[in-house]
Amino acid sequence: MLPSAPAILKSTSQALSRAARPLLIPRARALGLAAPELVQTDNLPKYNAAKLAGRPFLPGSDTKGFPATLNPIRVDFPAVFHPKAPADADKLPLEEWGAMVREIVDRELSKTGVLLFRGLPIRTREDYARLFDGTGLAPRDYVGHAGRREQLDTNVYSSNDDPLEFTIDIHTELSFMPAPPQKVMFCCIKSPGEHGGGETPVTDMRGVMRDMDPSLVERVRTRQIRYVRNIADKSRSSWNWQSNMHSEDREEVERFLTGKGFSYRWNADDSLSYWFSTDGLSEHPGSGETYWFNQLTEHNGSCFKVHPEFMNETKHISEFPRHTSYGDGEEFSEEDLAHVREVQWKNSYGFHWRQGDVLVMDNFMVGHGRMGCNPGVKERKIIASITKN
């Protein structure tokens, strides 16, 4: 298919933006500014630790060994950067900030796995899209995702559109897909506030691998994980296969599923069910280190037992929109699910979002989730991009 005129114009604009980068530093000096620079800080922001154990709408939080609260971030996890001259941030082009973000990502991300950029002049999704274009990272689409999200711009999506009070379990993004993203980026447009909840926990997957029961690791290694999807038609739900597949053409959807080696069926109510088995561990594409790399708990049907929209339904857990089991179809035991959740949350860290924050994660080294917002919070706007490189 030939690109549309707007796509050609956008591509040309991005190319011109990249070509113009060497001119931006002299421009800053002509404005009487110091050369733009992002610097790292060890002055970590104050964090009001979120309650975990016994938290409503948090899968597994009622188990005996669940951590009491979410850890505050460490000095190096994530590494925090901000403009050296914050007062001048608005006077510099967002594309140039994006180029500087990319330089730091290339230099630092492999060390810690997650970077937090604060104080950037981002107030809208269009601002973030400009910064993302400036990074030069290769975007990846979300076709085949299994959550609720909306495409907002060419490379920008809502992070998740589940009810605000629901806590999303820890996971690595699209780790069930044959070609998962290497990086995940989030940007805060509207913060729920320091007392509003809604944090994006970041999870040290090296720590998860260290603390996971070796016998469970071996079972997942040898038996794989089966992912099951039962997705409604858009006439019945906002959580629908048309949105997940970015298409309303059944033949196109079938080609996608067949191409990935997935089994599928169309149901009498026009819903789509499909299933497949894949590895639950993965080697990092750069270092070769093996990581716990899956959505075993986040996509398990047990999550829907505490989901505000599904918790009163009496169906079997395998009939909810998502479910996981061993690759041979045997269900994960309640003890195994509890253990995985406890280990993942034990190795997770939180911070309060501020408008303009940009979080960059290595998708193999670092997992993430979403804390539910506290009662009274009406809005939280975090947007996302995923990349191939």
TrEMBL record:
Protein name as it appears in the record: Dapdiamide synthesis protein DdaC-like isoform X1
Pfam families linked: TauD (PF02668)
Keyword set includes Oxidoreductase: yes
Keyword Iron: no
Keywords: Oxidoreductase
GO molecular function, one term: oxidoreductase activity
Protein's organism: Branchiostoma floridae
Lineage top rank: taxon: Eukaryota
Domain TauD/TfdA-like: 89-380
